[in-house]
Amino acid sequence: MKSMTKSPLQVARATYQPKLPAALKGNVVLMEGAATESVANQADIKELFPNTYGMPLITFETGEKQTYPAVGVGVILSGGQAPGGHNVISGLYDGLKALNPANKLYGFLGGPSGLVEHSYIELTSEIVDEYRNTGGFDIIGSGRTKLEEDAQYDKGEEICKELGINAIVIIGGDDSNTNACVLAEYYKQKNAGIQVIGCPKTIDGDLKNEMIETSFGFDTACKVYSELIGNIQRDANSAQKYWHFIRLMGRSASHITLECALQSQPNICLISEEIEAKNMTLKDVVDDIVKVIVNRANFGLNFGTILIPEGLIEFIPAMKKLISELNDLLAHNDDFNALETDDEKRQYVKGMLNADSREVYNSLPKGIAKQLTLDRDPHGNVQVSLIETEKLLIEMVAKRLAQLKAEGIYKGKFSAINHFFGYEGRCAIPSNFDADYTYSLGYTASLLISSGKTGYMSSVRNLTAHPAEWIAGGVPITMMMNMERRHGKMKPVIQKALVRLDGAPFQYFAKHRVDWADEKQSYVYPGPVQYYGPSEVCDLPTRTLLLEKQK
């Protein structure tokens, strides 16, 4: 870990002391609540996790001074980056040292593969201090190796025994925490003496429930994207000649898109979950966009912004059916792979699809149709995240507007620019909220470990209150699980949280989106993430969280 050249902001942020729940600042006592059960498929989950199912909820409260034996802990960063990961490690390190100065923390390098391949470093104060309140996962690196096989678990046990590691903390999203739950069960069943604690990370925001109010990184990423959207809207309002189609991270859920809409008030925002619920076709989506564009053109406004969730295509029922059929048709299809030209492949696909899917396929621009058949993963499946949905919509909207212009219905000018915001937000310097929240999650994990718990996810709740009033504790990972079909088999996984159409955030959006689409000026320019200033500016959580808590 090399010393870094730092910007003035980094130097200033290094002195920021994250806020902690009041209960964690002194002597702490663990309080157990009611026993839990999984969110669905209770019998199946209980059978698969007999040693870690049904454990109670945990909260930490102020109590009598206790002594804790020294422990060794390993930490893993898993999956995509999210702002605040370094502060989870900082909070974990500080918590462990506060509980017992003899505690040691090891970082497994490059994600879960570091555990299996025995690649690690000991994290010291000299290393940790370099990364406090910074973005990124570069302190130990991350990776997407899945911990799913007994041989991997056994290799992990070997290095833990060698280093004297009593517990592993896995910082990741729903899949990573599912793996953490399986690992906890495996070690518990073997009496290996290795605890496993999870930590909720994903900027997509789809790892959330009653006990996990938000996943870390979501706040910062949405603020970064909203700043960019606001900048584009200011430019659109100045130049008054472009429609900006902006695709945002979030393949499995539209939380980022909805939050950015609440912060910036674009002219159009598509929510995948609503489109699926209404059984809308791609043509329906295009027609809705065209209506707004035509209406604004009638007032001489040939510009605007449109927010599009990354996973939109998979939520359009007819497209989802087409993709599923293509996956079955083209996976390891030697006849298709032997064809040389794009046109030959296109004609082959047309001849094999059923009538409904063929009609959808024929309606797609050739470039998108090509992506559906050529950009495939090693299993032969369409790589939906690579489909440039914003370009698809631009092409289809332009074609429809040309038809309306020929009919004399549309008299405006349509020029479009496409954007995709993803990497821009994943490693941003964490907002005050995320800096505080992640530090608290890490500190809480140290208490769960020292209390001998395994199979829990670190939980910090009551997040719309001042951090001193936050409630720290743990939630059994099995409580969040259900059974889902993955690669043809039913597997236990943490249930993804989609945008709830009956929830307060979406309801607020639905109530105001018509006003945002019309000819009146409604744009909001959020500006950059604020680290200093009035608390109502620099410590504010997401609009989503405030609306959910009726604040």
Short key terms for the protein model shown above:
551 residues, alpha/beta, Rossmann fold, 2 domains, 23 helices, globular
Q: What's the quick description here?
A:
This protein is an alpha/beta fold and 551 residues long.
How many DSSP helices? 23
CATH superfamily of the largest domain: Phosphofructokinase domain
Number of domains: 2
The CATH class of the largest domain turns out to be: Alpha Beta
Number of strand elements: 15
How many whole angstroms does the radius of gyration measure? 25 Å
Q: Strand portion, in percent? A: 15-25%
Description:
This protein is of the alpha/beta class and 551 residues long. The chain folds into two domains: 239 residues, Rossmann fold (3-Layer(aba) Sandwich), CATH 3.40.50; 252 residues, Phosphofructokinase domain (Rossmann fold). Helix content is 44%, strand content 15%. The protein contains 23 helices and 15 strands. Strand 14 and strand 15 form a beta hairpin. Helix 13 crosses helix 16.
